[in-house]
Design brief:
Helix content is 57%, strand content 1%. It has 377 residues and is mainly alpha-helical. It has a two-stranded antiparallel sheet. Strand 1 (112-113) and strand 2 form a beta hairpin. The protein is elongated, with a radius of gyration of 29 Å. 38% of the residues are buried.
């Protein structure tokens, strides 16, 4: 469909913002409900097979709802991504149209502007011919008519180009939202009986425009900042099957080793952890780097200000997106600055090992390894 001026005039970009706000609100509610369910289940202090089954069930539910939360946040981002551009594109189209319309110089009429952006000088030329009377075929009038047609063509060029920009912006917005909706539908489809097999991952719609790039760190993994799916945002110390900090084998580990500052931060954190009894292999720097990339995009100053923990006054902070209570529980002496990259890695890594038995067993790491996708830890 070719976009018209009337189509653009009816755009209400504020509806996208309202929908995005609704999506982010759902994330907060879902995080809170899941956290409450997990906490209430643990508070029952079940033992034996029934207790183990309940714990496994809640871990499964938390992983699956975390995926829904992540998908909702992607939808939130997609809905907001082009709002400013859509508003600007709409204003430009209407401005160019009104500029062409507001050319009346009474009694000389304005240019005619069609809904598809076509601009004609018919009314103006008819007036000039009537006014010329017997000299309607004079060279002077022909030059005047040509001038009017050239001005009309200039107005049309600006309007048509503004419409093209608006259409490209709208198509880009539609593609981003469609991709986010497909991912959300897949994540929602996985919810249900944990005994059932997850539905197959869908094929995302192809982008109609080149992807937009920003200043965020680049790697083989997509980046997020302050992922609200991380249980570190509200997680607390839990019982672990591991009797010591030693790592157990998990899914196939990531292989992309960190570089630059991240490599140095991770190397120093591993050194400190080893000094405190954690048997961490050098290759596991890639696993830590993966978690950092997905949680904060590698930004040591990242902070999540939109989930339920942020609303409670304890936002997730730093490279591995820990909340203050969790950081305080898992930091080591001399490493108590949540904004310090090394200190944050130490606390986040200790939490992951204590919670899941190894870095390789972190659900998001397993998800990347088996192709089901990253979820917060």
């Amino acid at each position: 469909m070719t976009l018209t001026i009337g189509n653009v005039e009816q755009w209400q970009a504020d509806h996208l913002t309202a929908a995005a706000t609704h999506a982010s609100t759902l994330v907060g509610r879902l995080d809170q409900l899941t956290g409450t369910a997990v906490t209430d289940t643990r508070a029952m202090n079940w033992s034996g097979p029934a207790g183990a089954a309940a714990g496994t069930r809640m871990d499964t539910e938390r992983t699956r709802t975390a995926a829904v939360s992540a998908a909702l946040l992607k939808l939130d981002t997609a809905l907001r991504a082009e709002v400013a551009n859509l508003i600007e594109a709409k204003n430009k189209v209407l401005l160019m149209r009104d500029t062409a319309r507001d050319t009346a110089q009474p009694p000389l009429p304005a240019f005619d502007v069609a809904d598809d952006g076509t601009v004609t000088a018919r009314a103006r030329i008819d007036y000039l011919r009537r006014a010329a009377g017997d000299t309607a075929d004079s060279a002077d009038l022909q030059r005047a008519e040509l001038g009017e047609r050239l001005v009309a063509a200039s107005h049309q060029w600006y309007i048509v180009n503004a419409l093209k920009t608006a259409e490209d912006t709208a198509n880009r917005a539609v593609t981003q939202v469609q991709q986010a909706v497909v991912e959300l539908e897949h994540a929602y489809g996985v919810l249900g009986d944990p005994g059932t097999a997850p539905v197959a991952a869908p094929t995302l719609p192809a982008a109609t425009n080149p992807p937009m790039t920003g200043d965020s760190p680049q790697s083989e993994y997509p980046t997020t900042s302050g992922s609200p799916t991380s249980s570190l945002m509200g997680g607390t110390s839990t019982d672990s099957d591991s009797g010591s900090p030693a790592l157990s084998s998990g899914a196939a580990a990531p292989t992309a080793m960190p570089t630059g500052d991240r490599a140095e931060w991770i190397k120093e954190a591993i050194r400190v952890l080893r000094e405190n009894g954690y048997d961490i292999d050098d290759s596991e720097a890639a696993t830590i780097a993966l978690i950092i990339e997905r949680e904060s995009g590698g930004n040591p100053n990242a902070i999540n200000l939109w989930d339920s923990n942020a609303a409670a006054g304890i936002p997730s902070k730093g490279l591995m997106q820990t909340i203050d209570p969790t950081f305080n529980s898992y930091s080591l002496p001399g490493h108590s600055d949540i904004w310090n990259p090394v200190d944050n890695i130490i606390a986040g890594t200790r939490y992951a090992i204590e919670r899941y038995g190894s870095l390789g067993n972190v659900p998001g790491v397993v998800g990347v390894s088996d192709g089901s996708g990253y979820v917060g830890y």
